[in-house]
Amino acid sequence: SQTIHQWPATLVQPVGSPLSLECTVEGTSNPNLYWYRQAAGRGLQLLFYSVGIGQISSEVPQNLSASRPQDRQFILSSKKLLLSDSGFYLCAWSSPGGAKNIQYFGAGTRLSVL
Amino acid sequence: AQSVTQLDSHVSVSEGTPVLLRCNYSSSYSPSLFWYVQHPNKGLQLLLKYTSAATLVKGINGFEAEFKKSETSFHLTKPSAHMSDAAEYFCVVSDQWTGNQFYFGTGTSLTVIP
What we know:
By secondary structure, chain A is mainly beta. Chain A has strands at 3-7, 10-13, 19-26, 32-38, 44-52, 55-58, 65-70, 73-78, 87-94, 104-105, 109-113. In chain A, strands 2, 4, 5, 6, 9, 10 and 11 form a seven-stranded mixed sheet that branches. Chain A has a four-stranded antiparallel sheet with strand order 1-3-8-7, with no helix packed on it. In chain B, the strands form three sheets. In chain B, strands 2, 5, 6, 10, 11 and 12 form a six-stranded mixed sheet that branches. Chain B is globular, with a radius of gyration of 13 Å. Chains A and B meet through strand 5, strand 9 and strand 10 of A and strand 5, strand 6 and strand 10 of B.
C-alpha cells in the first residue's frame, strides 16, 4: 500500500534561518506531488506541485522553493525564513492523471518562525 | 475559474443530532468534488468523493454528500453526530481542465456538544 511520510512534525526556527522540509512517498511510481500551506484559521494554499523529477510549478510568488531530486521525494526549502512563513505545511500525492485522482496527505509540519 | 465556498466557518451540534456542512462550488466543466476532514495538528483524511457517478455519495464514518448540479452544491451530512466528529472539514473541487490541482474551501469547524 502507499504511504506518505513528512518530517519533521514540528519545527521552531529563527527569522533569517534556512528551511528544509522533506516528504517521501512509498508504494507508487511517478506520483504527482504537492506542497500546501495552511495559515491559522484559513484554508489550504497550494504552494508547489510536481508531475515528475525536476518539474516544479509554483502557484504563488514567495520566499520558498521546492525541489524533486528523486521520483518520490519532494523538498520544500527557504534560504531565509520570514515571520510570515509560519504555518502548517502539508505534503500530498496523487496518481498521475486527471481530475478524478484523490490527493493523499501527510501528517503535516508545524513551522513556527520566531 | 474553479472555486469553493463553505458557507459556515463554524457549526455546533449536540451529540446525536444531525450534521449539515454546506458547500457551493463554481466550475466551468464537469467537476470532481471531495470532502476532507482534519483533526487538530493532523493531515487531511478523505471522507468521500464525487466523480460523475451516483449523485448521492456515501463516505466513511457515516457521512454522505449529495451533488446537486442545479444548485452547484455538495453539502455534507450525517444523521447523528458523534464526539469524535469534532474537527475541521474542507470541501474541494477539481475538474478535467485543472487536472492535478485541487481548490479548497476555507473550512468549517465542527463542534460537537455532549
